[in-house]
Amino acid sequence: MSSIFVRKFPIFTLAIAGTVALTACQKPFGGDVRRADTSVNAIDGTGISDVMLNAADPAEAVSYFSRSVGENPDRIDLRRGLAKSLIRAGENDAAVEAWKSVVEHEDSTNDDKVDYADALIRTGAWDEAEAQLDSVPPTHETYKRYRLEAMIADSNQEWKNADSFYQTAVGLTTRPSGVLNNWGYSKMTRGEYKEAEKLFAKAITYDPTLFTAKNNLVLARGAQGQYDLPVMEMTQTERAQLLYTLGLTAVKSGDVAIGKGLIKEAIDTHPQHFEAAVRSLRALEANVSNG
Fold first, then answer.
1. Which of 54, 115, 182, 217 reaches 20 to 30 Å from 83, CA-CA?
2. What class has domain 46-107?
3. TPR repeats span which residues (predicted)?
C-alpha cells in the first residue's frame, strides 16, 4: 500500500513497480492477422490487461490503456485500467479525471466510487473525497473504504471515528502493516506516543521491511525520552538512519549532548558516507562553538 495522502500529516506508503517484456507471437498462416493482432478483445483474451495492471511499467500501462480507451470508449474495464495505471504512474490529477469518467459510466460500482475517493485524497481534495464516500452505502464494507474513512476522520480531527475506522480496516485485511502505521502516526500527532509506539511495533511484526514504521517507532520512543533503538530486524544502513532520526529527536527535545552522540554513532555505523548526518553534526558543533 500499499502508500501524499493527508491534509495535516503525511501518510507513508510503499510501492514496487516491475517491468515485463512482451514478445511478439508467431503469425498464423493466412487470414487477416493484422486485424486479429490489434483487436482489443483478442488482446484481452491473452490477459494483457491484467499484465499491464500488475506487472508492466506504469508509463507503458498508461500508454496501453489510453490507446485502448480511445479505440473502445464505452468499455468500463478499460477506463478502470487507465485510472489505475495513472495512479501507479503518480499522475494523480489525470487519475482523478479518469476515475470521474469511470463513476459516470452506467455500469460503475461502489468500488469505483471508493477508488475515485482515493484519487481525490491524493490530490488534496478532501471534501470531495468525503462526499464520494458518503454516497457509498454503509453496507459496502471493504478494507479500502474504511482505510480512507479513517484518513478523512483524521484530517477532520474526529479521533473517535478515526480509531473506529482504523480498527475495522485492520480486521478486513491480512496485510495490515500499512494501516497500522497510519493509525500509529495518527496517535502520534495527538501526543499519544505510547499507543503510537505499540501500533508501529505491531505494523513491523506484519512487515519487517516497512522502514517508515521503524522510523516512526523511533520517533515515538524519542518523544518519550527513550533514546535507545528497540530490538527489531534492520540492516546496517537502516540502523544508521534510525540512529540519526533518534539523534535529531533528542536535539529537538533539548538533549543536545545525547543527540550529538547518537548522530556520531549513526555516522560510524553507516556503511557509506552519511552526508546528511555529517552536515547536522557540523552544524551542531558550530552552534556550540558560537554559543
1. 182
2. mainly alpha
3. 177-210
